[in-house]
Amino acid sequence: MKQSTASLPGLWVALAVVSSTSFAQTSVDFGRNEYMASCASCHGVSAKGDGAVRMYLTKAPTDLTIMAKRNGGVFPTQYAWEVIDGRTSVVIGAHGAREMPVWGYVYRAEDTQPADLHARNRISSLLDYLARIQVK
Ligand code: HEC
User: Fold this and answer.
1) How far is the CA of 125 from the centre of ligand 1 (A)?
2) pLDDT (tens digit, 9 = 90+) per residue, 2-51?
3) For a pocket test of ligand 1, which of 38, 48, 53, 62 has the largest count of ligand atoms closer than 8 A to its C-beta?
4) Mutate which of 43, 50, 89, 135 to test ligand 1's pocket (most atoms within 8 Å of Cβ)?
5) pLDDT tens by residue, 58-69
6) Of 11, 77, 81, 94, which is the most exposed, with the fewest CB atoms less than 10 Å away?
């Protein structure tokens, strides 16, 4: 018993060291990671619509870097969110109708679960990334 109380401060020091080192590391860009994993195949690494899958699509993936430019200089957050979660299908295009979305299903499937927050975080980080790569 005595031994465990004595080691406790040591544990806190170790925890403090571990957590401070992880904060010191370069931060992970969740939005970029999510984009590269889920969107780049069509919209391209550059997000300009030049992804590898493009040649197999009847409609070209949109240049996602000019969304703000096309919307009076303001990134259309709500619209982008709805396209991603499948609520708004872009003319029943590649993102599909609500019943058959490409990624909407993935992001919405978790909507009724406690994982709802996780789905929202993924979409938020995506929107944050897209907003950051807008051309002026
Ligand atoms: C299967 C290919 C494909 C994938 C994967 C894909 N998209 Fe798309 N996306 C398209 C196509 C094609 C369009 C244009 C559809 C149309 O105009 O009917 C589009 C349109 C959009 C639009 C609407 C743009 C505008 O200006 O109206 C947004 C926003 C968008 N995609 C974001 C994303 C995001 C974020 C991801 C990743 C979660 C993603 N897309 C994954 C093919 C894809």
Assistant:
1) 16
2) 454 545 555 455 545 555 555 555 688 999 999 999 999 999 999 999 99
3) 62
4) 43
5) 888 999 999 999
6) 11
Question: Is residue 134 a contact partner of residue 66, using CB atoms and an 8 Å limit?
Answer: yes
Mean pLDDT, range 101-120, rounded to an integer = 63
Nearest Cα residue to 133 out of 43, 57, 61: 43
Please choose, from the candidates 34, 51, 1, 6, the residue with its C-alpha nearest in 3D space to the C-alpha of residue 118. Answer: 34
120 compared with 90, residue with greater pLDDT: 120
Cα–ligand 1 centroid distance for 35 (angstroms) = 11
Determine whether the shortest distance from the Cβ of 41 to ligand 1 is under 6 A: yes
pLDDT at 120: 80
Q: Per-residue pLDDT tens for 2-16?
A: 454 545 555 455 545
Q: Residue 28 Cα, ligand 1 centroid: separation in angstroms?
A: 24
Q: Residue 65 and residue 134: Cα distance in Å, rounded?
A: 4
Spatial CA neighbour of 62 closest among 81, 74, 46, 86: 46
